[in-house]
TrEMBL record:
Domain of life: Eukaryota
InterPro entries xref list: Tic20
Assigned keywords, A-Z: Chloroplast, Membrane, Plastid, Plastid inner membrane, Transmembrane, Transmembrane helix
Record flagged with keyword Plastid: yes
UniProt name for this protein: Protein TIC 20
Amino acid sequence: MKNEAVEMASTFIPLLNLPTHTAIKATLIPHLSVLKSRHRSSLPLLSSKPAKSVAVRMSYNPTPATDRLISAVAYTLPFFNSLQYGRFLFTQYPVLGLAFEPILPILGLYRSIPHSSFIAFFALYLGVVRNPNFNRYVRFNSMQAVTLDVLLAVPLLIQRILSPGSGGLGFQIMVWGHNGLFLFSVLCFVYSLASCLLGRTPHLPLVADAAGRQI
């Protein structure tokens, strides 16, 4: 005990001659330095090398303008052939015909060619759909247009077989059917045309699956 007291006295006696704040600082600094060294040793070592940056490259392959144009023109085949279904709407609403006046010169030229619908059908099917020189985008859209044209021709065959006449319930059902087919064909044409011009693939209901199986 005496030795410990002597050791403590030898530690603090020299500090008595110093100012109070200096004595406190001289006492605490050794202990603070030990704590700082322990704290630094406990921290994980950080790598001085900067993190490697990963370069992300995005590939974008736009549809060529030629493919978009051919695909858009292909949908004019079923659209021109479906205009005959709008005769009841044009008669009931004459203003509706004003929206189709810009295409009347092209439509007149198309119908002035004998058997134009058959020529356009086989030219599109044999010249584009079955031509391996065109990519799948053009062939699919052409096949979808051909399939839609065939489906729109079926109601005319049914009409000729049944002959609903010019009055009665059968005639009214025929008018409703023609109006519905006309609106459906116009919506399909506008949707397909806009999609092709933007380089996207339109998927028409009841048509896309049948067209996809033929490619």
